[in-house]
Design brief:
The complex is a heterotrimer of chains A (573), B (386) and C (566). In chain A, strands 1, 2, 6, 7, 8, 9 and 16 form a 7-stranded mixed beta sheet that branches. Chain A contains 17 helices and 18 strands. Chain A has helices spanning 17-26, 63-73, 80-100, 134-145, 213-219, 243-249, 261-266, 276-288, 303-309, 314-325, 379-400, 409-420, 430-441, 444-447, 452-469, 478-503, 565-568, and strands spanning 4-13, 33-36, 54-55, 114-116, 124-126, 151-154, 157-165, 168-176, 182-192, 223-224, 229-235, 252-254, 295-297, 335-344, 347-348, 361-363, 526-533, 536-543. In chain A, 51% of the residues are buried. Chain A has 3 domains: 4-230 and 344-413, FAD/NAD(P)-binding domain (3-Layer(bba) Sandwich); 231-341, Flavocytochrome C3, Chain A, domain 1, CATH 3.90.700; 422-517 and 544-560, Fumarate reductase/succinate dehydrogenase flavoprotein-like, C-terminal domain (Methane Monooxygenase Hydroxylase, Chain G, domain 1, Up-down Bundle). In chain A, helix 13 (430-441) packs antiparallel against helix 15 and helix 15 (452-469) runs antiparallel to helix 16 (478-503). Chain B has 386 residues and is an alpha/beta fold. Chain B contains 14 helices and 9 strands. In chain B, strands 5-4-3-6-7 form a 5-stranded parallel beta sheet, sandwiched between helices. Chain B has a two-stranded antiparallel sheet with strand order 1-9. In chain B, strands 2-8 form a two-stranded antiparallel ribbon. Chain B is elongated. In chain B, 55% of the residues are buried. In chain C, strands 1, 2, 6, 7, 8, 9 and 16 form a 7-stranded mixed beta sheet that branches. A 4-stranded antiparallel beta sheet of chain C has the order 15-10-17-18. In chain C, strands 11-14-13-12 form a 4-stranded antiparallel beta sheet. Chain C is 36% helix and 19% strand. Chain C is built from 16 helices and 18 strands. Classes of the chains: A alpha+beta (573), B alpha/beta (386), C alpha+beta (566). Chains B and C meet through helix 1, helix 4, helix 12, helix 13 and helix 14 of B and strand 6, helix 8, helix 10, strand 14 and helix 13 of C.
């Protein structure tokens, strides 16, 4: 195998916002930083598609009030030290963005526009300006800020394994996903900023992510929080952005009896102005009770607001026009909505500086795990900046003070050959594996009202797919080899999800077990962590170090909801 | 030396390709315009490309090209009336190209091929109900695409009307057997003497329970019989389908052949079976059923061809099958309407002007100066070499 | 083998679809049902015949064959297979009538007699011309083709034969491939006829450059070659092609040196000036240039205006050529053009008996694949000889095939032979064109091909040996088209080696062969042929004396004696 070989001080896998922040910071310590991304060069990952909203703790705000609320929202399951770091660093990063030339919105009196979240009193995000351009501008600002830095960036490279020299990383192997050309990268330290991956639900470009489950487990890192996923609710047939805006203006989820079921039945305090996780639980119960389908009703949105909410630019305008041509009017018709698992919220367990227990291996951004299944608008943008910055600093210092470890080309060849040997072969198509995986995630008792029965059944099917379909996969060209690795990664991610969900025998935050609908108050709060043991996933409960946390959980967001036990039990059979 | 071809003027008749003794030219047959034969063919067989390939004796590629739209050329050679030959441009020069003979020639090679199992590319199973022209065609394309396919046939053997119909509808049973056994060796499963009775209430649910994700209903004429349960029908009683995709009122059920059409020739049925297979591939891969299927037809015919050499049409031997050399000769008669010639191998041009003289469109330009190196050599020639 | 090969079986396989091959097919069909013609050019293109003017050597009624023969023996400087030539002349009238019966039209004078054109100042040798002018060859092709179709002769184009296959000593078929697809082809045959021509050097002169001939095919099959020291050398304008010097010279056109002298008349050819065979003009051009009196130009200024008016090309490619040259600012009739010599085709051939049979049972050669010329040009003879030899060889090969059981054809061995060629397919290596140019550089040196010498020929031999050792193993073919061209290029190298070795063996000057170190005829021995064969992979030459005792004419005068090379 004649591989194209690169040598660098710091290798960053993933060129999203976390990777760009880290590269910028690491390059202040070392001579060479190399970013590789499996997407196009400088596409800048999901951040580039975001609205650019950023959780920022401004000077007039109290960090402890914020933390208290975050612990409340997460039902106690919060890495308080990492969250404190994130909140504390948010303002400096916010100012960094401004210094790079990014603009955040201000109101007519010059104050930053802050939008509170999910009925929380303190935690708010600051929006970018102009609307709809935030992520695009942040991407441009970050790339501009890398000018003059010793950072090389390459696209269309799929990393398939991290190489090690003893317990120390020595680099990575992969291939150019448009040519199949093998790539070896020798590095002093490796940073994973890939995100954790998801289920490729059609939801803008984010479906690209396949994440780092395989990479991290094989390299010896631990994973955490895989029982938590981001469940979104969307129109059944198409995509629509903006329910967070429409709900406060009068948009409602109603059942087939025209009832606003959240307020009437499950969420007496907040109605449907809550986290999507809770809304979809309500939707599921309604449908199960024969009151489906659930539709999104915009009829109560005042006429004077219609102009504001009608898409006026970008893909949303296109989308709206095309739907109208097909006879679908979002604002006049009753559009059926449904829940959809989007992305995992698990991640690699790290220290505060992003280091893992594998020497030289770091993780940052959404490849770390911070949220626990409840959505926090603007947190990812904030955390990518803070953790990217902090980890970039740490990894740069680490690399500056160590020698380049021996890069074992034989080991590299062996690792890569496992993948490349599939190239040019006909076999099961990646899309089929993706669909099988989506299908085994789809049942309500697997992804929303989880039960041991549903999870075990899914796990059994997953094992079948692993043993029957995975070995028969083929990749007719490098494009499909990349998709094949992604599809396999998705299957591994699903396994992690199912096993972790089985392990957490309680309900908390984004995790709801129909057979354990309450919090487990008998044992201390724990993380579910996964590590590789003889090729299998091994699950461990790791207690939260509550002693070192400033907030002792005393109130729980989940307690605002009532999901009747007898209804919930229906999901056990 | 050959200098250029005026692409706009070139009519793609291939006179240059067919007569240049130094083999300087090739044809590009890919065009957004179709040849008249293609437009008239119910299956849209690309005989322009097929003949261009045969003109290069690329036999297997020609067959592969035909198989992209016509799964069973050996049957088509028998049961098709070949409306493609009627609008053939060649007709105005001497007589139309013997497309039937060429198809039968390729068909003979086709049934003689031994096929290996197609590597499975997909997890999801597809059921085909009926092993007539439409069903076999759908099964062929689905199997070839790597789907696990099961064909349910009420009779004891495959072929439908081509085996059990009126005498004039029947094809050679040996060819039918050959194709059924090819399909089997590719990996398709046949369930003979297994009527599915689609008028029963739960027939679709039963198939779903067996793991089938899509169904091709190709049971032949259903008019005047019990209508298939759950599917919308036309006034005459045929299953109502989308003309492009053969999709019925149920998203995952497709109907092809006589089941979905009041009249249906075997070739029309094969074409419909293919459409259903493509549409199923689309929906099982997450796309809209009609992705890539909406093809505009714009036929061009040759006009200025009176200066071309008249060539006698080769008629077929036994059962209309042209022997190899006759098939190759007949393919040379094709005027490949709508293609474009290009200079593929300029390095052997001998500046004879023959291409320019023969080009009916005046599209070729030959520079009168000979290639350089003999001139250079001839200077040495005079002086004597060292 | 990559593809499933096409396996065909036939009684008589004819390699080459020119007029000789077509004549052979016609008569072979009298004895057998299945005759197959394969040609590496396009289907039914008709070979060089289709590009000729259709001029045909035929002694008409009342003419004396012995007078014709006398002229030919004189023109060939005694080096003439008199038996064979006489037989050809005797049969020419039958084939001429056959052509007429097929619908061909020969030109006639106003009095109804055939229109003939005399040659090279020889009183008895005249070619009969076809009508209409410029269409003769194309019409002959069509007529022959119609006859073949009526006889159900199978024909395939774009097929390159790479090897004759034998069963023991006798021929059992051939292998090859389709030059546009690389599809392998195995042909079992009772008899095989080489109708390929002997090959040439692909210099730009109309389409004849396609020829790479059968040197390799014949030698590897065990046949012998004859007269390989003779080649057709033509002179042409340096920059473009122009036909018609044989017409313009009698009208007053002249070759001049840089001093404006009519050097032929003044110095080398006091009797006939430049109205002689091109070969002698070319020899003089070389000497003039060596003496510092080059370049040589073609002067048309003495042609009277009414002469030019009739010579301006009015149709076909020659008209196009003239028009385009004028657009480039070149007027052939008012400008002075530099002319150069150009080596074109070998005039050697496969040694056969009078019925085309070679020393290999079942292997035949016809037309220009046989050798009948000795370096001096004989307009109309090739078409005539293609017809007569094709006719007789077809009968002989047909009868041979009909009398033999189907030979055993070793498929595995045949595939093995073909695989060796197909192995080059799809690989990158030295391109055929580079090989062509390398070989041309060797052979176009004037001391190798025009005024030859042992020193130069040995130098050329070592060059061609180097080319064969270094370039040939490095050749490859990106696609099937180039595989065909590669085999042609290799054949050209082999042809060149044969030309050099035969030239070294003939230690005298005679007819088209001129040795600076042996400028005279070797009168110490009877006239001889140089015969070339392949032994243990190496070319060997030997001399074979002409059976002068059996010949009616004992040479007493020699065309070459009209020239003075000092």
């Amino acid at each position: 195998m004649q591989a194209i070989t690169f040598k660098t001080d710091v290798l960053i896998i993933g060129g999203g916002f976390a990777g760009l922040w880290a590269a910028r910071q690491a390059s202040t310590h070392v001579k060479d930083v190399l970013i590789v991304d499996k997407g196009p060069r400088d596409w800048a990952g999901l951040g580039g598609m975001s609205g650019g909203d950023m959780i920022t703790l401004h000077e007039d705000q109290d960090i402890h009030e914020w933390l208290d609320e975050v612990v409340f929202f997460n039902d106690g399951l919060c890495d308080q030290l990492m969250m404190l770091d994130t909140l504390r660093d948010s303002l400096p990063r916010f100012h960094d963005y401004e210094a790079m030339g990014h603009t955040f919105s201000r109101d007519s009196r010059g104050r930053y526009v802050r939008i509170p979240q999910r009925g929380l009193a303190h935690v708010s995000l600051t929006t970018s300006s102009p609307t709809g351009k935030g992520g695009i501008n942040m991407r441009a600002a970050l790339l501009r800020s890398l000018e003059g830095c010793s950072v090389r960036r390459m696209g269309n490279i799929m990393i398939t394994a991290i190489t090690r020299n003893g317990n120390r990383v020595s680099g990575a192997v992969g291939f150019f996903n448009r040519s199949g050309e093998p790539v070896f990268i020798s590095a002093k330290a490796v940073l994973i900023t890939t995100g954790t991956g998801g289920w490729k639900a059609s939801y803008l470009q984010n479906s690209m992510a396949s994440g780092c489950v395989e990479l991290a487990l094989e390299a010896g890192a631990r994973l955490r929080n895989f029982e938590f996923i981001d469940n979104w609710n969307v129109p059944k047939l198409f995509a629509w952005e903006g329910q967070t805006v429409l709900l406060p203006l009068g948009g409602r989820f109603i059942n087939n009896r025209n009832e606003e079921f959240m307020a009437e039945r499950y969420s007496p305090v907040l109605g449907s102005k809550t986290d999507t996780q809770y809304n979809i639980r309500g939707m599921v119960l309604e449908v199960k009770a024969g009151r489906g389908p659930i539709v999104f009703d915009t009829s109560r949105i005042p006429a004077e607001c219609m102009e504001e909410v009608t898409p006026a630019a970008g893909w949303m305008k296109l989308n709206n026009e095309k739907l109208k041509k097909l006879g679908v009017d979002f604002f006049k018709d009753k559009i059926e909505w449904m829940p959809q698992p989007i992305a995992s919220e698990g991640g690699i367990a790290t220290e505060l500086d992003g280091s893992t227990e594998v020497e030289g291996l770091f993780a940052a951004g959404t490849a770390q795990s911070l949220p626990t299944g409840v959505y926090f608008g603007g947190l990812s943008i904030c955390h990518c900046a803070t953790s990217g910055h902090k980890t970039g600093d740490a990894i740069g210092r680490y690399a500056a003070n160590c020698e380049t470890p021996f890069f074992d080309k034989e080991q590299a060849q062996m690792l890569l050959q496992r993948e490349l040997c599939r190239l040019g072969r006909t076999g099961i198509a990646p899309k089929d594996i993706v669909r099988v995986t989506q299908e085994l995630m789809a049942p309500v008792d697997v992804c929303i009202m989880k039960s041991a029965g549903g999870l075990q059944r899914a796990l059994q099917r997953l094992e079948e797919v692993k043993h029957e379909a995975l070995p028969r996969m083929g990749a007719e060209d490098p494009h499909y080899l990349c998709k094949m690795v992604e599809a396999r990664g998705m299957l591994m991610l699903t396994e992690a999800y199912l096993r972790a969900s089985l392990e957490r025998t309680e309900s908390r935050a984004g995790h709801f077990r129909a057979d354990y609908p309450q919090r487990d108050e008998t044992s201390p709060l724990y993380w579910v962590e996964i590590r590789r043991n003889h090729g299998e996933m091994e699950l461990v409960r790791v207690p939260l170090p509550l002693d070192s946390y400033p907030v002792k959980p005393y109130r729980y967001y989940m307690d605002q909801f009532t999901f009747p036990i007898e209804e919930v039990r229906k999901f056990l059979h | 030396m050959i200098s250029s071809i005026n692409e706009e003027a070139c009519i793609g008749c291939g006179a240059c390709v067919k007569t240049c003794a130094l083999d300087v030219f090739r044809l590009d047959t890919h065009s957004d315009k179709t040849a008249p034969c293609m437009a008239a063919c119910p299956a849209r067989n690309d005989f322009r490309e097929i003949n261009a390939l045969l003109q290069q004796s690329r036999l297997d590629e020609a067959l592969d090209c035909l198989k992209r739209t016509m799964p069973f050329p050996a049957l088509a050679g028998e049961v098709c009336s070949h409306p493609c030959e009627k609008p053939c441009s060649r007709h105005r020069l001497d007589s139309s190209v013997n497309i039937r003979g060429i198809e039968a020639f390729l068909g003979k090679r086709d049934v003689a091929r031994s096929l290996r199992p197609v590597p499975r590319r997909h997890v999801f199973k597809v059921a085909v109900i009926g092993a007539g022209a439409a069903g076999l065609s759908a099964a062929w394309y689905l199997t070839e695409a790597g789907y696990p396919v099961t064909i349910f046939e009420a009779e004891a053997q495959a072929g439908g009307r081509m085996r059990y119909g009126a005498p004039e509808e029947r094809a050679d049973p040996a060819v039918l057997d050959a194709y059924a056994s090819q399909l089997q060796s590719m990996g398709a499963q046949f369930r003979y003497s297994c009527p599915l009775q689609p008028w029963r209430e739960h027939w679709l649910e039963e198939l779903e329970d067996l793991g089938f994700r899509a169904v091709v209903l190709a049971v032949g004429d259903v008019r005047g019989k019990k209508p298939p349960h759950g599917l919308a029908c036309t006034a005459s009683g045929s299953v109502r389908v989308h003309p492009l995709t053969c999709q019925t009122s149920v998203r995952t059920v497709f109907a092809a052949g006589h089941a979905a059409s009041d009249t249906s020739s075997p070739v029309q049925a094969m074409a419909a079976g293919r459409k259903a297979a493509l549409a199923i591939g689309n929906i099982l891969q997450g796309a809209n059923p009609d992705m890539g299927m909406n093809v505009r037809l714009h036929a061009v015919e040759q006009k200025d061809i009176s200066s071309l050499e008249k060539l006698e049409r080769r008629e077929g031997g036994e059962k209309g099958v042209l022997p190899l050399e006759d098939a190759l000769e007949e393919a040379v008669r094709c005027l490949t309407c709508g293609s474009k010639a290009r200079i593929a191998y300029p390095d052997d041009c001998m500046t004879c002007f023959a291409c320019e003289v023969r080009c009916p469109a005046g599209a070729i330009d030959v520079d009168p100066f000979k290639e350089f190196h003999p001139r250079h050599l001839d200077r040495r020639f005079i002086g004597g070499a060292k | 083998m990559n593809d499933n090969p096409i396996v065909l079986s036939t009684d008589v396989l004819i390699i080459g679809g020119g007029s000789a091959g077509m004549w052979t097919a016609m008569t072979a069909r009298r004895h057998v049902d299945d005759v197959l013609i394969v040609d590496k050019g396009p289907l039914d293109w008709g070979g060089l015949c289709s590009m000729s003017d259709g001029n045909f050597i035929v002694p008409h009624e009342g003419e004396n064959l012995m007078e014709w023969l006398e002229d030919i023996v004189y023109y060939y400087d005694g080096l003439c297979d008199q038996k064979e030539t006489l037989a050809t002349l005797a049969k020419a009238r039958d084939r001429f009538r056959d052509y007429e019966a097929m619908g061909h039209t020969f030109a006639r004078n106003p009095d109804g007699s055939y229109h003939t054109a005399p040659q090279r100042g020889l009183p008895h040798i005249k070619a009969t011309t076809s009508a209409p002018l410029g269409k003769g060859g194309q019409n002959m092709r069509k007529e022959l083709l119609t006859a073949l179709k009526a006889l159900n002769v199978r024909r395939m184009g774009n097929v390159m034969i790479t090897r004759i296959i034998k069963d023991g000593d006798a021929v059992s078929g051939a292998v090859g491939f389709f030059t546009r697809s690389g599809l392998p082809l195995l042909i079992r045959a009772r008899a095989v006829v080489l109708a390929t021509g002997i090959g040439g050097w692909k210099t730009s002169y109309h389409q004849n450059s396609i020829s790479s001939g059968c040197v390799e095919l014949a030698l590897t099959a065990g046949a012998r070659l004859r007269s390989m020291e003779f080649a057709g050398i033509w002179n042409t304008p340096e920059l473009f092609a122009w036909t018609g010097q044989s017409v313009l010279l009698p009208l007053g056109a002249r070759f001049l040196n840089s001093a404006g002298e009519d050097f032929m008349l003044n110095r080398y050819s006091p009797i006939i000036g430049s109205k002689t065979d091109t070969l002698y003009n070319v020899r003089a051009m070389v000497l003039e240039t060596r003496a510092g009196r080059g370049p040589i130009t073609f002067d048309v200024s003495r042609i009277p205006p009414e002469g030019i008016a009739g010579r301006r090309p009015e149709a076909g490619w020659v008209k196009l050529n003239d028009t385009k040259l004028k657009a480039h600012g070149i007027d052939f009739f008012t400008d002075t053009q530099v002319w150069i010599p150009q080596i074109q085709t070998s005039q050697g051939g496969v040694q056969t008996d009078s019925e085309g049979a070679t020393c290999v049972p079942g292997l035949y050669a016809v037309g220009t694949a046989q050798s009948h010329l000795v370096g001096v040009y004989f307009g109309g003879f090739s078409l005539c000889q293609a017809a007569t030899s094709g006719h007789d060889t077809g009968l002989a090969a047909g009868a041979y095939a009909a009398s033999k059981p189907l030979p055993s054809f070793d498929l595995a061995f045949a595939e093995h032979c073909l695989d060796q060629e197909l192995a080059h397919l799809g690989k990158t290596g030295i391109m055929p064109k580079d090989m062509d140019i390398s070989v041309l550089e060797v052979v176009t040196a004037s001391d190798v091909s025009i005024i030859k010498s042992a020193v130069a020929l040995n130098r050329a031999l070592s060059q061609i040996t180097d080319i064969r050792a270094d370039l040939i193993p490095a050749m490859a073919a990106p696609d099937a088209h180039y595989l065909g061209k590669m085999i042609e290029a290799r054949g050209m190298a082999t042809l060149t080696e044969a030309f050099i070795r035969a030239s070294l063996t003939r230690t005298e000057s005679r007819a088209g062969h001129f040795r600076e170190d042996y400028p005279d005829r070797d009168e110490s021995t009877p006239p001889y042929w140089v015969v070339l064969s392949m032994e243990d992979g190496k070319m060997k030459t030997h001399k074979e004396y002409l059976p002068m005792e059996e010949y009616p004419i004992k040479p007493s005068r020699f065309y070459m004696d009209q020239f003075n090379w000092a």
